[in-house]
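Note to self: user wants both folds in one dump. Writing first protein now.
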Amino acid sequence: MTARTWYYNLALSGGVAVAYGASMAFSLSLTREGAGIATIWLAGGILAAGFLLLPRRWGLATATACFTVQFAYNLLVGNPLAAAATFPALTIGEAAAAAWLARKVCGETMRLTSMSRVARLLLLVVAPATALTAILAADVFTLYGRSFNTVLSGWFYGHALGMAIMLPASLMVVRPDMVRDFRRTPFEQICLYGLVAAMSFVSVLPIRFPMPLLLFPLMALLAFRLGPRGAAVGAMIMAVVLSSLVVSLPSPPGGATWSLAERTRSLQFLIAINFFTSLATAMVIADQKRMKRLWARRTRIARAAQARAMAAGQAKTEFLATMSHEIRTPMSSIVGFTEVLLKREDLPEPARRQLALIDRAGASLLTVVNDILDFSKVEAGEVELSPAPINPRNVAQDAMAIVAEAARRKGLDLQLGFIGPVEAPVMLDDLRVRQILLNLLSNAIKFTDHGRVRLDLQAIEEPDGVLLRFRVTDTGPGVPSEQAARLFKRFSQGDSSVSRTHGGTGLGLAICRGLTELMGGKIGVESKPDAGATFWFEIPARRAAGPVREAASPEAAAPLAARVLLVDDHPMNRELGATVLGLLGCEVILAENGEEAVAAAQTSGCDLILMDVHMPRMDGLEATRAIRALGGVCAAVPIIAMSADVMPEMEAACLRAGMNAAVGKPIQIQALHDVLTRWLGEPGGVAAA
């Protein structure tokens, strides 16, 4: 036990003993009946509260002190020795019984935070304890010639009403948490408590107006300002003042005469009603304040959790950007040099076959990286659709053409069917629709070893547009019903066993679901084991007002003749870029960092700049701003970001820095040709960022 706890227990024990002695002397000297029973008995509630608040050893010491004080007082007023010892023994036993019952009924903490808890305390603690003690006292005092009924009624009324007021009031006065939301200045507290004392005094004056009724609004004010503790202290003040003036209470009108006990009990009922009505009001207010405090706390917790979630999301974005850059940088060389070598005519057939294997392996790895990035974008809600007039039939045919070679290598029969007006132009993002189709078709080919893969497209006319329904059916092993429900969840696969023969990230179908729902559609699967599977999705689309734009044929594009400044800190990337640009007919100027790029832009007279973003000394963003600040031709030269960091945040940062566009690594020859053709065909025009 710490010194602070010891001093607290000492002060509390002393306070309980003093309060017990004072209330005992007050009750016995002022309201003792002819049978020797006090009409109002507040001491039992004070001692019961002490038993509940003090440790057991301190409680025993306090009980001993209270017994000694009451025993001495009884001898002083002339009670026989046996009676002088019996009175305090019964009172202390009553308080101990009430404390024991309170712990059983209300728990060890005795937190009276609601009127239901107070009601349980009164009905299941105070009433049984005082009733049993009253019966015992009546039995005992018949030995001293007292009337059983007189002792029983006098004891029960005086002790039950006194404990009903003092036990909950004492607990609330001592508990510090009762004033958390009702802190007021000492001056205001003194004024309010003084007003209660004054009104209690005035209420017993022989005035025609029923002054005791004014105590109710005053106690309500006390409850609003000082809370449950204020109501408890106010009840104690009322009990002391009104009991002190009980002898001066006038008799009720009509000539009836009330005894001292009847006057005292009527006052006790008045005090109890005032106390419990104001206490109920205070607890309602305290509960409201507690709920507001809890709501504010949960709001702070929610905001902190939101901040942590945003920080975690930012960390995930940064991690994906870093990993994307670190993986795509070597992938750029692998894919790029493989594509360059495959264009050579002097390669022997075994070497060409091996290069084709490397190219397919690189494409598979790039697919994994793209799946992770696409899923991250879908999950973060960063995918933006670009609807344009498209021909649904062409989209389906293009997707089938892309997977035709993979199906041919496995000996699978590819089939394509159409139902309805599939050639009518509609407004859709063809890249996203094609992405979903390619994923479903690739999965069907991957999991089908023999038989066929069929794509059916149905266009259903609706009043406000067209519903496009795509169905990809295969003759593979099918999907068990227990796996079908989780196929469209992230990292789920049809074959997730240790011995599975098909690879993949398990993100493809999750991406398909996200893209389908983003376009307002839905996706699902129908399958039976060993009977193939049908993956379907349907998307609503508006009818297109204009014709479908036909893409330019790659073969029609002429070789480029332009001076291109290539800026990259990686030697292998510079060599690859120079080789690819040379194949496209460009004259290449090389720079290793941003500072060299700014100098070369001033002197080389380049037609276009391919700028890496992540570089030492001066990165691509800073270099772009410096080039734009030079003015003149440098302010208008097209600058294309060429980076392995393909996150949306980086692309936006490139455009804000003054670049015209951004393309991701690894760059394919045709893709690079297309972007150069676009921006070299717009000299002097800087696209809006």
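First done. Writing the second protein, which came from a different request thread.
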Amino acid sequence: MSLFKKFVTVGGGTLGSRLMGFARETMMAAALGTGPMAEAFYAAFKLPNLFRRLFAEGAFNAAFVPLFAKEIEAGGIDGAKRFSEEVFGVLFTVLLALTVVMELSMPILMRTIIAPGFEGDKYDVTVRLAIIMFPYLACMSLTAMLSGMLNSLHHYLAAAIAPIFFNVAMIAALAYGLWIKADAVSIAYYLSYAVLVAGILQMLVLYIGVRFAGMSIAFRRPHMTPNVKRLLLLALPAAVTGGVTQINLIIGQAVASMKDGAIASLQYADRIYQLPLGVVGVAVGVVLLPELARALKSGHMVEAESLQNRSIEFVLFLTLPAAAGIFALSDDIIRLVYERGAFHPEATATVAAVLTLFGFGLPGFVLNKALTPGFFAREDTKTPMRFTMISVFVNSALSISLFPFFAERGIAAAESIAGWLSTIMLFVSLTRRGHLNIERALVSRAIRMVIASVIMAVAAHYMAVHFAGYLHSGSPALMQAAVLLPIVFASFALYLVIVFAIGGADIGMIRRNMKRRGKAAPAIPEDAA
């Protein structure tokens, strides 16, 4: 399968999940707005979600995948299966112990780290919601391991569609709460139980996918084998690196808890920019790491260099116009997606401003996903960790400094600046080591992509101004959608016309991505299942 098709497979599944996420957040805004129960739920969910990003997605995409790929190359499927079972035994035991400790520590964690600004009933409800949701981490960590196995075996679909089940469970909980006209506190509890159910569903989907791919995992008594020790040495710094955005978000949330409504505003804006970040960034990160690891382990350095250049090209081609579109249409997007029920026009202005600042950081966040595999595939997780710590320090300092003057806008600006700083450090380090050689043609095309994106943003802005009579707060949602969606599609079509006309992209670029083929996945003997 071509690299482009793999990106499309993962990105398509992620797109489906993100679109359902929009439906979920729209219902959430209508049910809870930016009120205290919305903030309680988002604050409570932030802790298991942070650990999921740190120890599940970050650690396993960074550490498990290259080692699993190495086992396939060296020992075949039997060796990879043995390694997976060793990891599973240790991982399950650690997760069980961590869950017990975190559940008991939840009140103090919420008071000191997660939401120090919460008080009274709001604080009590947040603690109870977090206790309900924290086992979600264990489910998602095991899911990440199963996902890493499938991606290394070139089975991308199951891992790509699994997050859809999270949104199905959440939408069902919201629909039930709205149908019976439950109060805000009850809806928050329904959502918390839905998170736990969603984690179990995703884990089952991935386990079925692994069985379908021809492998099975048996539980082994926890034992620190050399392979497991190597995994832990790689996973610890990778956990920090892979969760840089979430670390910055948790810092921002702790600061934002000092102002009513700030946490919810950041969350609603985050959901919008997570669409391009997820579709493009996750697709590139998930596909590139196993592909790059395979190429390097096989000594195919030219192929590895081409993989990195093609990934950066793909990222810029899609995220630059996405960021430009956010700049031009943030108010109209937020109004269409959220402004109804408990979500008022004043909240629209605030969330739109936050989204615009997140849009500035979008290309940097996604490029980060394309650059970190260049370290992880070489089993270097310490260098990105150091850059991450610098980024976290800068984000913390800026968030604390800017919040008194700009509130949640200051936090969004701090996160975007810190994200770009991390990306720049990754790029410079890879280049200096000779691990990344950017093609001159890619630089030239990138400049032209920027020009096409700026022109697109100007055109989108003027179209929105021209049709402002149909996009204001009093307009029906269907009317707003009937006007805004054509503006979005017309703007992107204009970008494509311009970028091809001025040489920012060409048929050759598309053909290179379509035709580039990776090694086939190893054949799995029948008795391996």
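Dump finished. Worth passing along: Residues 514-529 have pLDDT under 50 and may be disordered.
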